[in-house]
Each structure stands twice: as C-alpha cells, then as structure tokens.
Design brief:
By secondary structure, the protein is α/β, with parallel strands linked by helices. It has two domains: about 5-50 and about 290-405, Alpha-Beta Complex (Aspartate Aminotransferase, domain 1), CATH 3.90.1150; about 65-285, Aspartate Aminotransferase, domain 2, CATH 3.40.640. It has helices at about 10-20, 25-35, 50-60, 80-90, 105-120, 130-135, 140, 160-165, 190-200, 215-220, 225, 255-265, 275-285, 290-310, 335-350, 385-405; strands at about 40, 95-100, 120-125, 145-150, 170-175, 205-210, 230-235, 245-250, 320, 330-335, 355, 370-375. GO terms for molecular function: L-allo-threonine aldolase activity.
Length: about 400
Amino acid sequence: MADQGDVVDVADEVGVVDELEGADQAARERRLAAWRGSERALVRGPVEQRIGEGLAALTAAAPDLDGALDDWVDVYGDGVVERLERRVADLLGMEAAAFFPTGTMAQQVALRAWAGRTGNPVVAVHPLAHLEVHERDAYLTVSGLRAVRPTTEPRLPTADEIRDLDEPFGTLALELPLRDAGFVLPEWDDLVAVVEAAREREAVVHFDGARLWESTTHFGRGLPEIAALADTVYVSFYKSLGGIAGAALAGPETLIAEAAAWRHRYGGQVFQQWPTALAALAGLDRELPRLPSYVAHAAVVARAMREAFTAAGVAWSRVHPEVPHTHQFQVWLPYPARVLDEAGIRLAEETRTTLFRRWWEPGPPGLAVSEVTVAAPALDWTAEEVTEAVAAFLTRVRAVLAEDGEGDG
C-alpha cells in the first residue's frame, strides 16, 4: 500500500464525483478495489486507503515532525495548529497565516474582509475559477459579493483585460494554476503585469493558490516571491501535499486577525484539529520538496501519452497543455465517459495498472476529459511504459465499444 507521500490530489475526481453522480455503491466498490489492487499507478488516491492504514501512515510520519507527538493536543487552534500556521507564513514570506478547515471557507473570509476594507464588493474572477465552479457561489450568496469577468478565455486574464474592465472592482482573484482550464499558469512577466494592472485600478489581489505549491517550477521563482505579488494567498493541504483536509489563508497580520474572527463566525473554530494539522505538516516535509520532480516527469508522461494516441490512430485526442505547467494536465478523447471509465477499470483489474481514473463530459456528448496527476508512484514509469499502458487502455476502449455496438471514434 502507498505511504502517505504517495496519496495526493485525486479526491475531487474520485470521491466528489461519486457523491455528485449518486454512484451505485457496488460500482464504486469495484472501482476502488481495482485501483487499490493495482501494482502500478501514476498517483495513489486518498480514498483507496482503509481507515487503519490512514492512521498508520499518519503515525509513521509523526515522529519526523520535530517532537510533534510530545505536544498536547490542540484546543480551538492552539499548539500544533499554531505551529502549522507559522510554518505556512514563513514558507510564503507572509506576516501571518490562519488555518481553516476548508478552502471554501478561507476564500469566502478573505474576499469578505477585502470587500470591507476596500469598500467595494465586486470581485474580478474567471468564470472557470474554483470560486465559480466548485464552491456553490458561496462568496456571492453567503457574503453578498458580486462578480465581474475579465475574460472567458480558458486562461488567466491579461493586463489589458484587467485595465479594460468597464466597472470598478475591489479585489482581483486569480486561481494559480487555473484548474478547469487545464491547470494552466501565465508566464511570470504576464502575471506581474496583471497584478500591476489591478493595482492601477486600486484593487487588492487574492491568490487562490490551492495548488500554488507546484507552480514554482513554471514560474522559476520561489514561493515567497510568488506570494509577494498578492495581498492574500490561500493554500490547500490535501490537493498536492497528501493531507487529510484543511487550508490556510496567509497575508498581513491585521487582516489574518480579522479572518480568524470571521472563521469563528463561519463555524470554523473547530475544537480539535491535530490529525489534520499533523498530516499537513507531514505533507510540507515530504511532498513539498518532491513536487518539482513530479512536474518534470509530468512532461515525460504527457508527451508519451500524446505520441501513443497518435500512433494508435485515435481519430482525435488532446493532451492539454502539451507541456504541463504543473504535475497535472488534462487528456481529452472522443469517446463517452462511461466507456472510458469501464476501460480504465478493466485495465486495472486485468493488468494491475491504473492509468486514468474518472472521466466526464463537460461539453458535447461523447467527448470526455480526464485529469492526470503525476506523483511519486509515476517516477518509475518510463516513456515506453506509458506508451504500452495507453495502448492496453485503448484496446479495452475498443472492446467496450464493440460490446455496446458502437464504432471506434
């Protein structure tokens, strides 16, 4: 079974998809058994673990955390939670940080606080941002804010688009990377220019940095230099670091103090959070230093997949971006999601190899996308092995299509 360091960043496309689709329990059990039984995978998912295994992994990691097991358990955010907050503030070069049980809560609080300070409730945000797509419009419905769209293109906005917005806004919220556009990032100079454009508009800048940890390679800058562009930064502890849950909001000390007050009002003042804090600290110790190697290998995996689809004669396919900006990217194929899901499960059951996990059809029926995460288990895969796995996967895709009486795409 994978250790804690192998368990990263697939909860959204595993557990959440099941919940939203109301998946049949037997189908879910089959899928998890197939993934869990695989000897080879690009990433290990957190939902593959039994509870006892998760506890064992956390206990195994804890002795390396500078005497953390000798601390008292936390009470309403002291002790190990404060240690985590200081660690994050130092890593990002910010004055202070506050721990939140969820990123949705952290972002609501940040935007609400900035609206109060700027006197402007308008947030400039991309329509594909997590705030828009995955948080049920929380900042609009709970905090009474309003959105404007700098662009609808599947990329971060440009400086000119920020300057050309036809109404004032108090906060510019940038998701780095923009997940639903393909985990894409701007170039460094373009990001600097966008921030400067927002300052010209007398707006503050908030980074949705749930996956900021793995963005340093693309930017060629360290975390403090990246974070210094923003007034506040939210980071996640489970999306790339293998944590149980939780997030942090970092920024000026006075704003973080205000955020802590709103955290209490929003119900985030949890009595004890030491398991979540310990898992986050373990992720910062173990996974954060590894992320650049995952990003580098993602380029190898993406290229091998792209070439394998072409060699197999797939009518149309896309790996996006062609060279991933982080250790995650999208794969698009011209088949129904249910066919690709079934083929992936059969590949895992028959060859003990998990290549792709969940597929979905966000646009035209029959055109499906999957998110690929390259983590520690993938580092042993050569390009040739990726090519072979893709070929084996496509063989099963065609078999499922034949059973359904459908032609190959």
